[in-house]
Amino acid sequence: MQKDKPLGTVIEGSLSEGLVIKLYPHVSVEEMRVGEFLVIQGVKSRFFCILSDVKIDHNSPRLMSDPPRPENSFMAEILGGSSTFTILQLEPMLMFTPTLPGKAEDLTVDDRRVVDAIIDENNLAINPDLKLMPVKTVPSHFSQVYSALENDFQTVFGSENDPRKKNFSIGRPLDMEVPVCIDLDRFVERSNGIFGKSGTGKSFLTRLLISGIIHKDAAVNLMFDMHSEYGWEAVSEGKQFSTVKGLKQLFNDRVEIYTLDPESTQRRGVGNAKPLILSFDQIEIEDLRLVSRELGLKDASLDSAAVLEKEFGRHWISQLINMTNEDITLFCEEKQGHKGSIAALQRKLMRLENLKYIRQTCPHNYIDNILESLDAGINVVIEFGSQSNLLSYMLATNMITRRIHGRYVKKAELFLQTQKEEDKPRQLVITIEEAHRFLDSSIVNQTIFGTIAREMRKYFVSLLVVDQRPSGIDNEVMSQVGTRITCLLNDDKDIDAIFTGVSGSGGLRSVLAKLDSKQQALVLGHAVPMPVVVRTRSYDQQFYREIAQFNERKIIETNGTNGTNGTNGKNPSSNIESLSDLGF
Ligand SMILES: Nc1ncnc2c1ncn2[C@@H]1O[C@H](COP(=O)(O)OP(=O)(O)O)[C@@H](O)[C@H]1O
Ligand SMILES: [Mg+2]
Prior knowledge:
This protein is of the alpha/beta class and 584 residues long. The protein is built from 23 helices and 23 strands. Helix 11 packs across helix 14 (339-349). The protein is elongated and about 95 Å long. Bound molecules: adenosine-5'-diphosphate and magnesium ion (MG). Residues 202-203 line the site of magnesium ion (MG).
C-alpha cells in the first residue's frame, strides 16, 4: 500500500455519527486496523480522523445466495470494488484549514500531495500559529482519504525536540515509526489516569511517564509505590528472568526513596532509602474514615473516636489502646460514650499496631522531610514492601497526602496573594494505585483524593491514578480526569467508564476493546490534541540511554553496572544500617 495514495473516498456521514468511507478496490480490507490514524483532504480543510470500524459489504442479493466458488478467484476480483466492497467508519477529530498562498484555487479535492508540497514549502506544518481546531464540520462528498504520514503525526502531536513545549514521546502509531508525543505541561496540570486490566502494561507506562516528567522537569512527583516497583528495580514478565531499572537508578539524586518496610527494602539492595515512620498521634479521624471499610469501623465507632479525641487530644489512639475494660466503663460513665462501640473501636484500632511503620509516638516528623524534598524539586517514591495490604496502603497514603495537600493549599494561597514567581508552588503529581478504592462514590466526597481530583489545577497538585477497574471510580471524578491512557479493558462497565464525560466517543469504544493485550494504549484527553492508539514506548536499555544520557555515568558509578539483569543495585553507601537506631 502506497502511503501517499488515496485509500478511499467519503460517501456519507455526519459530525455526530462519523464518516462512511468506501475503500478503493486496490486496497485490501486486511490492511486496515481499527484505531489507525487517517487523514481526509477536503477542499479547504484537512481532517484528522481515527478509524473506528471496518465492514465488508455487497450490493447484490444474488451474491449472498451464490458466492463465487473457491477456485474462481477471477470472479472475486471482478466483483471487488463494485458488487463487493469495504466500508470504513471514521471518527473525525481535528481539522486544520491552512491559508494556502496563491495556488490554492488550483487545488482539486483529491490532491493531497499538492497540498503537502505547499504546506512544506511554506513551513506550515511546523508553524506554531497553526491552529488545529476540533471538527466543526465534515469534508465534502468524495473527499479523498489517506493513511496519516509522518508529517501529519508531527502536525498533530508535535515533536520531542520542540523547544517551546515539554513534549514527551510515549509510543508509536500502530504501523509507523514516528513518535507520538504528549504535552507534559498540559498533562500535569490536571489529574490523569492509567487504566487497563492486569498485565497490560500499566506499571511500565507509569514508570515511563514519570521518567518523562522528571526528565523534562514538568513537575515534581510523589509516588505511593504499592508493589515497590517504581523506585528501584522491578521484575519484567517474560520467558527469562529480567528486571528493569527504577527511577532512582535512572535519575539518581533527583529521586529519593522512603520506605515503610526498611527490612524488605534493605533485602532488595536498594541504595539510600530512608525510613518513614508514622505515629498514632498523627492519625486524624478523617484518616480513619477512609479506611473504615478495611478496618470494619461503623459510623458509631467514628462518633466515639470524636468523643475520645475531644477528651485526650492528639494522643487519643494510644490512650484508647492502653485502656482496660474498667477504664472504658469509667470513661463512658463520665463522658457519655457508648461502651460497646468504644470497645469495638479499641479492638479494631489494635490492628494498626501490627503495621510496621506505626509507632505510638515519633519524635521526628518524616512528612516534613518529604515536603522539604518536594520543595527542593526532588521526586519522592514511597515503598511499601510487605506493608502493601490495602489497609496499610490506604492509611499511609491518605495521611501523607492530606498533610502535603494542606501545605500546598497554604503555599498556593500565598502565591495568589503575592503573585511573585518565587512563591509559585512547584506543580506536584501524586501517583496512587488501586485508585478506585480511594475514589469510589461512597467515600469520594470525604477523602482528600476526591478533593484533589475535583479542585483541578487550583492548588498545583494533581493525581496520577493507576487502576484496573475504572468503573469503580466515581463518575464525577472520572469526568475530571484530564488525560486517560488506557490499555486493554474487557469489561463493558470499565470501557464505559473511560469515556465518561467524553462527548462523541461512541466509535472509540470498539477501538479500546480491540487493543493488543500488552504494550498498546489508547491515549485521549487534555494532553493530546486528539485520541490516538500507540504501541507504548519500550522501557528498556534504549530508553535509559535516550532519557538518562546526562546522568548515565553517575548510574554506572553508583551501581557498578548499567545492565538490567538484577545483579546490580548494591549501594555501599546505603544508609539503611542507620535504621537500627530507629528500632528496626
Ligand atoms: N512499555 C513497555 N516496555 C517494555 N515492556 C513492557 C512495556 N509494557 C508492558 N511490558 C511488558 O508487559 C509486562 C506487564 O506489564 P505491567 O506494566 O507490569 O502490567 P500491569 O501493571 O498492567 O499489570 C511487563 O512485565 C513487561 O514485560
Ligand atoms: Mg502493575
